[in-house]
């Protein structure tokens, strides 16, 4: 059989020249805390009389990494299908923040014990260091090599189906599967090393004893890492919310420290995509330069804890509805919707009748996912009477995305919903590796009955009506493989109004989005520029200072789309893309939240 390439030989030190050998002597712990070597784990995983291992798959995992959750069924399937062919699969967790009980829960949730897949703890990330593993999920395939026994023949990703922020219906290249098949055939692995996309392993690092920034305190009188994380991250990164892991205690945050540094330095977190050169927004989620420096300095110093007694107390959050107890809660359906374990899930639409016998005036609205682990975003639309079969994107009431605040209008403002209207829930789900269900809902608070106008706008209380409008066009075609295709839509203001918020909406091929306002005298200003649109974050941009828009003004929206193969979100670069409700089709909508005088 062929030798593994010399590139891999440099990855793990071995006593003799040649490819890295299977580290059978690596000491690990099972979910009960018992000592077990990697070699013993492989032996315990085999059935009596099973053939000698022809291939061993060692995969590094983390119990909270989203890419691990969605790919865990693959490891189970490989173990079940490969046992008769001598394939052994072992999962290794080297994260300092993952406990043995976390591993036991992970093993049970993905039915790995029944499949004969050991899930082992790597204390002090010794095995991860030895194999130079960096991320989860990262796969190592060992196969027989003459004179060396089991030796490393593949290291890298599973496939290109899932990545940070994107998912495909199927892989265009199954690197792990191809490598394993080659090893079992005794053939050379065509691509022995691939780049891994995923969560960084939460290693134990020696902390700098002289660090000026710790978890507890910062340099001088500045806040430490805990204060920055509590202020900017904890609203989502806490139990019961959409983020995949919590950041409310030192050990958890220190384990995620390297990943935190990566996403902060690359401006992936906190999610915010508005160009600061245009507009000021009250919900701007960006870290300040000082906050960034605090976090990056802390991670670079090895995530020191400092004096725990000096650390701030974790924040507390109101349980339940952020708008307070709703006057009415409307579920999207009578029964939960089934969510598959994997794959790309097309948009789902649910009609719900709130039973309004009279006009209603909404002062607060909050969508809440029934299962935050799989709800990507929600848009709740209002279908007025007589338009029950027509979806008008301008009739959006409120949206949900992780981190997006609910709608809470100012005193004297209300959103009017006509009697007989229905709600349309637009639901976008993302699979997480386990079949589950969801029953999302929207909570509403109504205007005090004493303040309801008797004759519409300007009634007894001179109410200002808030509504959703849209600048949009259905008429576009995005050519195959177009790298930067521009679509423009404009709309004239029919009367005076106050602009409150802007929400761009596109799908997988959306690349950038810009709002511009041209006044009746011809002056043009940019209201919002999103140069790098991200479909994963359906953000609303709330204006710090609402803008008065005069009758005869024009709002123009310019969207660009990337239909090239270089767009990892792109379902099919060979397709001519047109308007459609599903995420593999496209939309071009610039939502406007406005207040009418």
Automatic annotation (TrEMBL):
PROSITE patterns: CYTC (PS51007), THIOREDOXIN_2 (PS51352). Residues 219-303 form the Cytochrome c domain. Pfam families: AhpC-TSA. Residues 8-185 form the Thioredoxin domain. InterPro entries: AhpC/TSA, Cu2_ascorb_mOase-like_C, Cu2_ascorb_mOase_N_sf, Cyt_c-like_dom, PHM/PNGase_F_dom_sf, PRX-like1, Thioredoxin-like_sf, Thioredoxin_domain. The keyword Kinase does not apply. It comes from the Bacteria. Gene3D superfamilies: 2.60.120.230, Copper type II, ascorbate-dependent monooxygenase, N-terminal domain (2.60.120.310), Glutaredoxin (3.40.30.10). The keyword Disulfide bond applies. Coiled coil: none annotated. Keywords: Disulfide bond, Heme, Iron, Metal-binding. This is Uncharacterized protein. It comes from Alienimonas chondri.
């Amino acid at each position: 059989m062929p030798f593994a390439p010399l590139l891999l030989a440099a990855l793990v030190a071995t006593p003799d020249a040649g490819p890295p050998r299977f580290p059978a002597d690596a000491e690990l712990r099972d979910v009960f805390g018992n000592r077990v070597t990697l070699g013993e784990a492989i032996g315990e995983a085999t059935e009596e009389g099973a053939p000698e291992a022809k291939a061993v798959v060692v995969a590094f995992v983390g119990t909270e990494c989203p890419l691990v959750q969605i790919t865990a069924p693959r490891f189970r399937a490989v173990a079940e299908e490969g046992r008769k062919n001598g394939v052994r699969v072992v999962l290794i967790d080297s994260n300092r923040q993952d406990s043995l009980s976390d591993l036991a829960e992970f093993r049970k949730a993905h039915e790995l014990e029944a499949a004969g897949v050991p899930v082992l703890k790597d204390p002090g990330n010794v095995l991860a260091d030895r194999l130079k593993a960096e991320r989860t999920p990262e796969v190592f395939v060992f196969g027989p090599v003459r004179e060396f026994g089991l030796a490393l023949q593949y290291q890298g990703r599973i496939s290109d189906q899932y990545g940070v922020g994107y998912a495909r219906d199927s892989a265009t290249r199954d690197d792990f599967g191809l490598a394993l098949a080659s090893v079992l055939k005794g053939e050379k692995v065509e691509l022995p090393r691939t780049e891994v996309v995923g969560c960084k392993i939460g290693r134990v690092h020696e902390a700098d004893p002289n660090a000026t920034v710790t978890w507890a305190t910062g340099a001088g009188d500045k806040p430490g890492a805990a204060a920055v994380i509590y202020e900017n991250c904890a609203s989502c990164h806490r139990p019961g919310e959409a983020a995949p892991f919590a950041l409310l205690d030192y050990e958890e945050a220190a384990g995620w420290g390297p990943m935190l540094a990566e996403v902060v330095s690359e401006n992936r977190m906190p999610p915010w995509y508005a160009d600061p050169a245009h507009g000021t927004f009250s919900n701007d989620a960006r870290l300040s330069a000082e906050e960034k420096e605090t976090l990056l300095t802390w991670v670079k110093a090895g995530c020191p804890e400092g004096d725990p007694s000096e650390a701030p107390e974790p924040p507390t959050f109101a349980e339940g509805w952020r708008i307070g107890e709703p006057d009415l809660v409307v579920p999207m359906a009578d029964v939960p919707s089934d969510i598959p374990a994997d794959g790309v899930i097309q948009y789902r639409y649910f009609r719900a009748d709130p039973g309004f016998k009279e006009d209603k005036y909404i002062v607060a609205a909050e969508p809440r996912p029934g299962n935050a682990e799989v709800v990507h975003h929600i848009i709740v639309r209002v279908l007025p009477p007589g338009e029950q079969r027509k979806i008008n994107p301008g009739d959006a009431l409120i949206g949900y995305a992780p981190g997006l605040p609910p709608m809470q209008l100012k005193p004297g403002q209300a959103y009017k919903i006509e009697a007989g209207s229905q709600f349309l829930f637009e639901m976008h789900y993302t699979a997480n590796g386990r079949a589950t269900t969801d029953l999302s809902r929207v909570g509403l608070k109504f205007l005090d009955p004493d303040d309801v106008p008797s004759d519409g706008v300007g009634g007894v209380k001179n109410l200002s009506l808030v509504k959703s409008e849209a600048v949009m066009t259905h008429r576009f075609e995005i050519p195959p493989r177009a790298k930067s295709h521009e679509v423009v839509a404009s709309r004239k203001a029919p009367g005076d109004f106050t602009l409150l918020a802007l929400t761009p909406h596109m799908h997988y091929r959306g690349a950038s989005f810009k709002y511009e306002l041209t006044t009746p005298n011809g002056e043009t200003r940019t209201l919002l520029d999103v140069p790098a649109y991200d479909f994963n974050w359906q953000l609303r941009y709330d204006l710090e200072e609402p803008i008065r828009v005069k009758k005869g003004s024009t709002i123009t929206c310019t969207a660009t789309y990337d239909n090239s193969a270089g767009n990892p979100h792109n379902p099919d670069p060979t397709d001519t893309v047109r308007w459609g409700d599903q995420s593999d089709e496209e939309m071009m909508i610039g939502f406007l939240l406005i207040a009418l005088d």
